[in-house]
């Protein structure tokens, strides 16, 4: 009896609403999050990078991504990555026999140190658990600190990200026959993805496209 009572108090709380839950996020918040899921996850993007997005960056999903990044709640990222994988599996954009290498958009190491982790990497882990695709968390390295994108004009964004990435050492032995899929938490203008894809393509690596947990409605 006492053990049962104690177990109620020892249950971790939902990182989004503080209710006691045995799951990463409580059922109530999961339902709210799923209301943001897009019916059509295939989105058009600029250039030749097909884009796949799980949900609309708004309301509870926006809150969840902020909690993932700033409240140090990586379990949210794993769950979102897993949902992204479920949606991907239902909407096969590529031949299901192709198993692309998953590379998250990297943070600069100074920023990653402050945050404790790279949220894109956590999402990519959840995505790879669901898809069984291989993951290379350090396939790309961010070599330059960049300014927050939201404060910049379109032109400035392009200049801000230029030369920000290089290939990770772990990717030097990459088989060119295996294509890459890039993963991040939010897709906005696509300038970051474009720059990341350029570095890979300049090195002869095929980039299939990009997958993101969320993007704003106007896209
Ligand atoms: Zn909750």
From TrEMBL:
<protein>
    <submittedName>
        <fullName>Uncharacterized protein</fullName>
    </submittedName>
</protein>
<dbReference type="InterPro" id="IPR000836">
    <property type="entry name" value="PRTase_dom"/>
</dbReference>
<dbReference type="InterPro" id="IPR051910">
    <property type="entry name" value="ComF/GntX_DNA_util-trans"/>
</dbReference>
<comment type="similarity">
    <text>Belongs to the ComF/GntX family.</text>
</comment>
<dbReference type="InterPro" id="IPR029057">
    <property type="entry name" value="PRTase-like"/>
</dbReference>
């Amino acid at each position: 009896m006492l053990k049962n009572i104690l177990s109620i108090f020892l249950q971790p709380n939902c990182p989004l609403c503080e209710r006691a839950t045995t799951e990463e996020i409580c059922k109530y918040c999961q339902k709210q999050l799923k209301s943001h899921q897009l019916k059509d996850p295939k989105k058009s993007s600029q250039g030749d990078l097909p884009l796949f997005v799980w949900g609309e960056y708004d309301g509870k999903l926006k809150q969840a991504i902020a909690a993932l990044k700033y409240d140090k709640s990586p379990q949210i990222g794993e769950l979102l990555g897993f949902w992204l994988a479920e949606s991907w599996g239902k909407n096969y954009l590529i031949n299901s026999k192709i198993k692309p290498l998953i590379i998250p958009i990297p943070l600069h190491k100074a920023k990653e140190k402050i945050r404790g982790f790279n949220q894109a990497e956590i999402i990519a882990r959840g995505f790879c658990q669901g898809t069984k695709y291989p993951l290379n968390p350090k396939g790309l390295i961010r070599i330059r600190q960049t300014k927050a994108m939201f404060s910049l004009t379109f032109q400035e964004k392009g200049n801000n990200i230029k030369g920000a990435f290089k290939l990770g050492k772990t990717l030097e032995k990459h088989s060119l026959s295996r294509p890459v899929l890039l993963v991040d938490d939010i897709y906005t203008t696509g300038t970051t993805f474009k720059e990341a894809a350029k570095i890979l393509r300049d090195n002869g690596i095929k980039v299939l496209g990009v997958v993101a947990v969320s993007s704003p409605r106007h896209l």
